[in-house]
Specification:
By secondary structure, the chain is an alpha+beta fold. It has two domains: 108 residues, Chitinase A, domain 3 (Roll); 128 residues, Chitinase A, domain 3. Helix content is 23%, strand content 31%. It contains four helices and 14 strands.
């Protein structure tokens, strides 16, 4: 009787797991489920090392919570973890609904979004699959041409900066602590007031939000308000810390520059930054 009861319990657990997200299939990566909304049977599938380019939209029920016309690009890597190791299931032209738990969404894209049922609906439209070798050659060519310009601008600034030896490297970001913090980072979901002044490396001020009334309201983990490099900086800052950072173009305004041309393409940007609790 006990064995029978145990068998029934196991069967019920399995049944419940299948009913948890009807119509969705669990990926091997924990916390991610997918459903094909449109299947392009003639679309190319990626091979190991290929790049998949897709457009992403995050839904809140039937409403769009976040979208961006700029395509996302991920390299298919079967040896990795998360979505990048699962891209072989999809085709060029497919439309897919992906359900992420909050932790997986944060790990994949740096987004924080909470739902009552614990899942976030991310829709992707696969635009194309790019041969990994072709992508690498194109990247190397662009990097050589434009990287030389960016490196020249950065080196010119450092050569004339009297405190250049105070910068340390944190990944791709040059970091200088102006006021030390208390050793504790701000946790995700913290509501902040971000005060900053942004410069081109020639000293031109491109944005100034240092006054309290001009400070930018920001919740750690939210996307779209700040350039990617500032998101990284705030996640790494200690409470009470004030910093000066230099972001490479790849973490600032990229190869296109800013809207309106205030920041030219391939230009590093320097920020003096302080993040405070929004009380």
């Amino acid at each position: 009787m006990r064995i029978l009861a145990l068998g029934i319990s196991v069967m019920l657990m399995i049944a419940c797991s299948f009913e948890e997200h009807p119509g969705y299939t669990a990926l091997e990566s924990k916390g991610i489920y997918y459903k094909i909304l449109f299947f392009d049977e003639e679309g190319e599938q990626p091979e190991q090392g290929d790049m998949m380019r897709f457009r992403m939209t995050i839904y809140d029920g039937d409403s769009i919570w976040w979208s961006n016309d700029q395509a996302q690009i991920i390299q298919y890597d079967t040896s990795g973890e998360g979505l990048k190791s699962e891209l072989g299931k999809f085709h060029e032209g497919d439309s897919v609904s992906l359900l992420f738990d909050p932790e997986s969404l944060w790990d994949e894209f740096g987004f924080l979004e909470s739902k009552a049922d614990g899942q976030v609906d991310v829709r992707i439209k696969v635009l194309d699959v790019i041969d990994g070798n072709d992508w690498s050659r194109a990247e190397q060519k662009a990097s050589r041409i434009n990287g030389d310009l960016e490196a020249f601008l950065l080196q010119s600034f450092l050569d004339t900066c009297v405190y250049s030896n105070e910068f340390i490297e944190k990944g791709e970001i040059l970091w200088r602590t102006l006021i030390s913090g208390n050793g504790i980072n701000y946790p995700p979901w913290t509501e902040m007031k971000v005060k900053y002044r942004a410069f081109l490396l020639d000293g031109t001020i491109i944005d100034d939000r240092m006054r309290t009334e001009d400070a930018l309201a920001y919740t750690i983990g939210m996307q779209g308000q700040l350039v990617p490099g500032l998101v990284q900086v705030i996640r790494s800052m200690e409470q009470g810390e004030e910093v000066e950072v230099i972001l490479p173009s790849s973490l600032a305004f990229g190869s296109n520059g800013s809207v309106g041309g205030v920041v030219p393409p391939w230009n590093p940007v320097r920020f003096v930054l302080r993040a405070e609790l929004d009380t």
